[in-house]
Amino acid sequence: MKGRGTGHPGLAVAQRLVLRRWRRLPVRGELLVDEGQSVAPDTVIARAERTGALTPVNVARSLDLPPHEVPAALLKQVGDRIDRDEEIARTAGFFGLFRSRCMAPVAGRLASVSERTGQILIAGDTDPLEVNAFIAGTVVAVDPGRGALIEGIGSLVQGVLGVGQEVVGPLVAVVGRREADLTAAMIGPELSGAVLIGGGRTDREALQRAAEMNVAAVIAGGIEDEELTAFIGSELTLAITGDEVVKPTVVITGGFGPVPMERSTFELLNAHAGELASVSGRTRVRVGAVRPEIVIAANGTADAQSIPDGSREKAEHESDSDRALLAVGRRVRLVGADDLGLAGTVVGLATDRRYFPGGGSYAAVEVRLEAGSRVTVPRANVELI
To answer: What fold does the segment set 160-291 form as a domain?
Structure first.
């Protein structure tokens, strides 16, 4: 979604949009759907297998043999399955004694043997790749061997930051107020597979409890950055997230710290409690911004023809007319890596480009933060609230 003029889009919080998503494999594979086909969020639309890495093993050196004697020492044929730490070659020894052995460092299949170098290659196990539709709707275009464009009608909520991969589950309201924290004590085994709607802050203890209870995703207003870093087990980078192998997926709608969820976000999510939601934690805050999102399919038909023609353009370009322009007096949220989630009010718009640390000149905006201080940041680093 893109704003008009000098504006920058705010986080989308909207009912009944026409949503379009290209869903593609990273490598060529098999397309499993046809144009015009109806799909659910978990419908697999394309599948491929990515060949595992090739691992060289110097058998000649390991067994202290001339390279040309390696084929006779092998216990496996090309194409055979090999387990990690399995014996793959041995010397004859002396009267069956004092044999040297070579063990496989990885699992896979024997891909090749070289009599010239005495090395073998083990091809790692193939990595199955599948792409699902993510949103309920209809296939409106296909990219043979790669994926498809899905169009459907649904409600959309975007977050400021997220971690974790795409998941699907029913929305469950956990707190009664948008300022209320989501804590570990609120999460029990009955929430397995659910997408939890929090309010204010959550923390590492709650996320770890959610993981133990097999919760699909957690949505909250805020979190301390050190709590999120501790949960994912590595330093958080905001260049791009979403590939972390962590459960549950986490979407933060406000930012770092004790940030209550925006009223419109809290009310929309709770209005859809019990319905199926698709959640992505993927985030990129720099050029080509990608926002974590929650998509809730509209009840009834997902046929795009049921929405007036003008709605599609509005859905693809702007979620609401009041998001049109960035102007003095507008309330904004900062999304730069150094001040992610801080909120304030626009007090000035530069008429020329400003230079910023790290290189580059950008159109700038001056913001009075809620704490009272003023900052000047690139316009691309603010979003309308």
So the answer is: Glucose Oxidase; domain 1 (3.50.30)
